[in-house]
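Quick one, T. Sequence first:
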Amino acid sequence: MSAEALLELAVDAAHAAGELLLGRFGGTQSGVDAKSSATDMVSDADRDSERILLDAIRAARPDDGLIAEESGHRPGTTGLVWVVDPLDGTTNYLYGIPAWSVSIACRDADGGLVAVVHDPSQGETFTAARGSGAFLNGAAIATSALADLTRALIGTGFGYTPGRREAQVAALTHVLPHVRDVRRAGSAAIDLAWVACGRLDGFYEAGIRDWDRAAGLLLVREAGGSTDILDPGLDGADCVVAAGGALYDPLCALVRSALSAARATADRLH
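Structure tokens:
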């Protein structure tokens, strides 16, 4: 199957899941439970969206590998692996905040092959295929050309465990004085898609999982930006950095310095 066909499969699946989620959005949610901590939520909406995505992928590509947020990892035999987040931004979704998305990526031995981040609330679908550019609702997009870190609008996010949040806040206090401002939307997939289309100049976050970032990282790279996963990050978690090409090096340097300062603060306190 060509990359075009894989991307079409991903878009169709994301739209189907997004339709289900949008139909339930704003109503009473069922099956709400906690995962890694009392503040890390999951609901039947997450589970049912994932079922739609996995059923569509398995029907078309039964021998591919799968990594899904709610159901885990299933190895495959074709060399292709799908990385699926059925509802990125569950807390926003449960609170009626229209900043959540469906994220699907497919990768091979060389990395990201196709990517979709679908934002049903805004009617926006971000897509990319390796070597073919990135698009928003079919129109080509590009990352910001900004090079001055002091004028940059940077996205970030926070984890769900107290220790990681404490470290992330310590890092943020180091970043914030050196940039224009910081935004925290609550969906890493959307944040990365916004870097890809230039709504954010850059993004960093420690601790986001494979399914949170797989699609967004390919979107940024295909839109002309750069990405990296910094290790060590914080609290045992690596740190994603993404930005337009001109801003990438200074943002990486700032984030590395912020992570180092946060680790030093944690060592002193504990």
